[in-house]
Amino acid sequence: MATVPDANVYVVAVEDADFDQCQSIVKTLFSDADFNKAHRLGAINSINWARILAQIVYYFSAYFQLPEAKREKVQFVVPTGNFGDILAGYYAKRLGLPMGELVVATNENDILERFFRTGRYAREDLPDETVAQAAETAAVNGSSDGAQAAGSSDSGVKVTHSPAMDILLSSNFERLLFYLAQETGSGDRAEAQATLKGWMDTLKKDGQVDLGKKVQAVGSRDFWAERVSDDQAGWPLSFLVHSLTPDPRADPKVLLPRRLVRRRPAHGRRPRRPGPRRQEVVRY
Fold this sequence. Notes:
alpha/beta; Rossmann fold; four-stranded parallel beta sheet; two-stranded antiparallel sheet
């Protein structure tokens, strides 16, 4: 990105920083009303609501491209970094698009997988979570699962083979948390905003916040999540390397559809009922 030659583009590199740290800088600038007004700031990533609006269309388009016979059991598997694309799927579902749960496909930066499994939104694994995952997910770079390994940043973000997903604090996940706060509270918008602010303040101060089983249950109604390690993702890519060039989000989305047809999550989920298999759609 630092080699863009266009005269109207000026690239700023932040030394020794990861996505979370860079996004924190951008969000701080946006929250400064005077600076924002003076410099007329605008975002072109999914901080910008227009990006989400455009992505909602993808889901309707994908649905209507399927044969009618396969639309009933459609399920979208979305490689997730900043939670923008999959949030657009959530809005599509709220707008009435028929679908099953949205599957959050993530790498070793698995804060979202841990939230949907435990109700805790935390930068790092807690010991009981580590034990629960040990049999399912390989360790990263020889570290204990969830601990910061060599190649991890100071913020806890791990360096993986899918760098576009090397994110912990997804800005768009806050947008989902607002709806969860509203639905699990009184329904009042101002109250939900205050609840969300309290959650995010606790996360900023303590590095984690327990949102509770009720919030987890409501969130899990529309989502479930799977985590893929670099070691697990390596073998499916070997089948593609000679014919395709996978993008920076390739690892989890290549492996997860294979995993989904074999099983459903074990963490408190209902087993798959007999009947037609869901049509898995992988969002690219």
